[in-house]
Amino acid sequence: MGSALSAATSSVNPAEMTAASKLARALIKDNAVMVFSKSYCPFCQHAKSALKENKIAFEAIELDQRKDGGAIQDALQTITGQRTVPNIFANGYHIGGCDDTLAALKSKEFQKKLNNTTKGPFAVETSSDVSKPSTSTEPAAASTDKAQL
Fold first, then answer.
1. CA count, 13 A, side-chain hemisphere, 148
2. Angle ∠(15,76,61) on CA atoms, nearest 5
3. Is residue 102 part of a domain?
4. Could you tell me if residue 22 is inside a domain?
5. Are 147 and 48 in contact (CB under 8 A)?
6. 86 near 101, Cβ under 8 Å?
7. Which residues pair with 94 in a beta bridge?
8. Of the candidates 87, 89, 92, which has an alpha carbon nearest to the alpha carbon of residue 116?
């Protein structure tokens, strides 16, 4: 009998996992606020609404609308220990999910991390980040959404 964790993870080959990890790290590094989301998730919608209400611009990627979404989600679990969405980063700092984001916004910790002149550990280029993968070949439905202030 398999564990709940193994049942929840998708099976991706090592090349897909490497590409997904590089993409996730590049998105985190290149965006002040990065939200990994699923379009149908109410917690994702709530967290993104809270960011908008606080006039915080963010980049969102809807994992359910991408061919490589499962691989990205697996990579995020490896990178952060969190597989659930939303999975939110500010200035390279891992904030966490919806409840973590709401708490960080309320306590102003989110804004402190966002305005910190020192980038967080997830915004630092690692030796595995040899080149930034291109996302230009994704279909329009898989593109990222830019929240406007």
1. 0
2. 95
3. yes
4. yes
5. yes
6. yes
7. 89
8. 92
- What counts of helices (H) and strands (E) characterise the chain? 6, 5
For residue 62, which of 146, 134, 120, 118 has the smallest C-alpha distance?
A: 146
Domain assignment present for residue 145? The answer is no
As given in the structure block, the two tokens for residue 94 are 């891992």
Distance CA 45, CA 37 (A): 8
On whether the CB atoms of residues 81 and 135 are closer than 8 A, the answer is no
Give the pairing type, strands 145-146 and 93-96.
Answer: unpaired
Q: Which amino acid is at 106?
A: K
Place of tokens 């080959």: 13
Q: Render pLDDT for 45-92 as a digit per residue (tens, 0 to 9).
A: 999 999 999 999 999 999 999 999 999 999 999 999 999 999 999 999
The boundaries of the domain holding residue 63 are: 13-123
pTM: 0.78
CATH number at residue 115: 3.40.30.10
Tell me how many domains the chain contains: 1
134 lies in some domain: no
Alpha helices by DSSP H, the chain: 4-8, 14-30, 42-53, 69-80, 98-107, 109-115
Q: Token pair of 108, please?
A: 């102003």
